[in-house]
């Protein structure tokens, strides 16, 4: 019977790295510690992989603690500017998906991001919104009456 694939969440990996900094143990001891703490059995190869990126994991903020996989942002500057745009305008107007995609395309042009580097698909947009905790909000007060 094939083994079921098990993944630790980002926050679990982060906590494991903290533990590993303070407790020098063997791979099998780390496997047992994870099993006792989270009732998850991982391979020693998983321990090795996580520890290889320990310094990087501890240096960055855990943005999405429940995520199990991390795909690097291709153009971080672009996403940061788009996030600032959303935070600035989300309470003044309705920012539809179409508006956000159009805005990110304009920003990509300004930043000279070569065509084809990014696909501004609905999947990309949804991940961007999830990572940055962006939700459609109903406008209140004056902004609402301006419609």
UniProtKB/TrEMBL annotation:
Enumerate the UniProt keywords alphabetically: DNA-binding
Listed SMART domains = CENPB
Known SUPFAM superfamilies for this protein?
Answer: Homeodomain-like
Source organism per UniProt: Rhizophagus irregularis
The major lineage groups are:
Eukaryota, Fungi, Fungi incertae sedis, Mucoromycota, Glomeromycotina
Provide the leader sequence positions: none
Q: Name one GO molecular function term.
A: DNA binding
What is the protein name for this chain? Answer: HTH CENPB-type domain-containing protein
Note whether DNA-binding occurs among the keywords: yes
InterPro entries in the record, alphabetically? Homeodomain-like_sf, HTH_CenpB_DNA-bd_dom
Establish whether keyword DNA-binding is in the entry: yes
List, for all copies, the residue spans of the domain called HTH CENPB-type.
Answer: 66-138
């Amino acid at each position: 019977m094939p083994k079921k694939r098990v993944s630790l969440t980002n926050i679990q990996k982060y906590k494991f790295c903290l533990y590993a900094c303070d407790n020098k143990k063997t791979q099998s001891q780390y496997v047992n510690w994870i099993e006792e703490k989270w009732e998850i059995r991982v391979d020693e190869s998983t321990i090795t992989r996580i520890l290889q990126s320990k310094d990087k994991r501890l240096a960055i903020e855990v943005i999405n603690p429940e995520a199990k996989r991390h795909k690097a942002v291709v153009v971080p500057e672009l996403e940061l500017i788009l996030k600032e745009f959303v935070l600035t305008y989300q309470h003044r107007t309705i920012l539809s998906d179409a508006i956000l995609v159009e805005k990110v395309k304009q920003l990509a042009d300004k930043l000279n991001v070569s065509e084809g580097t990014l696909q501004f698909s609905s999947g990309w947009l949804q991940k961007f919104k999830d990572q940055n905790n962006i939700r459609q909000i109903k406008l209140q007060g004056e902004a609402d009456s301006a419609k």
